[in-house]
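Would you mind giving me a polypeptide sequence along with per-residue structure tokens?
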Amino acid sequence: MLWFEQRPLTGKHVLVTRPRRQAAELVHKLEQLGAVAHVLPVVEIGAPPDWSAVDGALVNLRSFQWLVFTSANGVHAFIARLPHLGLDLRALGPLKLAVIGPGTAEALRGYHLVPDLMPAEFRSESLAAALRHQAAGQRILLARADRGREILREDLQDVAHVEQVAVYSQVDVDLRCSPELKRIVAGDIDYITLTSSNIARSLLRSIGAEALTPIRTGRVQLVSISPVTSAVIREFDVPVAAEAKEYTTEGVMAALVELAGRRERR
């Protein structure tokens, strides 16, 4: 057997639904495993329509003890805004930094910043529990998207002063004319990776009944990054074929490889 035929995803068509700027790393990993990778960004990342709340928080950063990031997008958008107010990374000096998982931590390290807190389980509930213990009675700034779960604010507001600002926006992409949507309808995609609950919701409410049919029948299978994302998928009455044990893109890849192996053995 040739070496390239031994790769676990050889010949499998895998759809990546992340924003295009973030899809490259996952596409590269898929191709290394032999997959034919397709990209269908279902949300676009952009600036918030109004920066006033963010700017107000930035000029008052010294009033906070904790700065919390729940995504790499949040890290990049927050730090990119600093120069607009005549600030730089020194403004973050007194703050303790918390992140939801390794991808967000890696984004921070790209600016030579090291997180003070990352939960053992990479989900909002675990981050909130850790902050309840370490940040009680303090002031917390949450830098996040303009939509998503409110778990952090809701779980922390009774033990700390919590302020959250939307440092970036997520806008649904019109998928109706996408050639990748036609591939789903035809059943030419084997697997779809869903790396956040927002992406899952945007995809499944946008693709229409015709594209949902091959997913419901199992011809096209969904791989979810976490139980939260899986719960959103099931809201649309479609099955989750595999769920990552570690809530990271690496976890998604591991779940995908395991799923493909099971499918091959049938």
Notes: The longest helix spans residues 249-265.
